[in-house]
Write a structure and sequence with these properties.
This protein is an all-alpha fold. It is built from 5 helices and no strands. α1 packs across α3 and α2 packs antiparallel against α4. The longest helix is centred in the middle third of the chain and has 17 residues.
Length: about 100
């Protein structure tokens, strides 16, 4: 199980190379990541998901120094991510939207 940290803290603790790796993987700049971290901008759902995935990769390589950044912490309306897991589980078990089979 992963713990998580805010993007601002992640960027503060990460090395210059680690910050660059996240930015390149997201097809953006470190400066833009700082704008998102400072809440001057909000990430799109796609960008937030990319940042979450890449920070997880970088965190895995950091020997516990870093933790992944949750995507819901970087978007204007985090509720868009709240039931994503529920929808995926329902589709896997064959349930319908109304809860019947």
């Amino acid at each position: 199980m992963f713990l998580s940290m805010e993007l601002k803290e992640f960027l503060k603790v990460a090395t210059k190379r680690e910050r660059a790796d996240v930015a390149v993987a997201c097809s953006d700049s470190v400066s833009y990541l700082y704008q998102i971290a400072g809440e001057h901008r909000y990430a799109s759902p796609w960008m937030a998901t990319q940042i979450e995935r890449q920070t997880r990769v970088v965190a895995d390589l950091s020997d516990g120094r870093l933790e992944p950044v949750p995507r819901a912490s970087m978007v204007r309306h985090p509720e868009i991510f709240y039931d994503v897991g529920l929808r995926e589980n329902t589709q896997e078990t064959g349930g319908d939207d109304d809860g019947t089979r």
